[in-house]
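Thread: quick sanity check before group meeting

JM: Hey all, I'm pulling together slides for Thursday and realized we never actually wrote out the predicted structure for the chain we discussed last week. Dropping the sequence here so it's in one place. If anyone has concerns about the input, flag it before I start.
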Amino acid sequence: MPLSPTRHAKSPPAHAHAAEHGEVRAPSGAEARGRQEEGLALLERAFSPSGRPVIGFFVYVAETTLMRSLKRRKPYHAIVPSLIGTPAILSARPGISQTELAAYLGIERASAGKQVAACLKRGWIRREVSADDRRRFSLYITTRGEQMLRRVASIIPRHEDEFTSALTPEERQTLKSLLRKLITS
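JM (edit): ok, ran it. Output follows.
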């Protein structure tokens, strides 16, 4: 009686089985970094055949990398970049309007409105009718918002060290200066 190949034949490697079934194995750390480097180069060539740097693309990829890094560890979940600026500004400038807040954050008034609504829902800020102009609301940080800011301020340095670990202190300062220049120009 012949032996069944599945009983005595050497099993194919796991990646061969995965490939047969349309599964893709995750590349190792070094392999993943190599593919990411190659992917960035392919995308940059597609977006700029002349070879001119595509800074906006790299800023976007850096932002998505930042957001992924915030999801890796539970303590970093407290850092909500799209919202923490609102209570931080109100802590320094209590009683400003939504329009003034938008100017400080460098965003549209409608976007500030969404941030205000989300911060109100989380209990980080409060809104009061202005004593000077009944048509205007004044915004203030709450005790809960102050607690959140203290917590986030204690977490951010550790995250920054991890996120920018590939950069020297001088490179970090240069990157910050260049980004500030882009943002404020």
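AS: nice. Confidence is low (pLDDT under 50) at residues 1-15. The beta strands are 125-129, 137-141.
JM: adding both to the slides.
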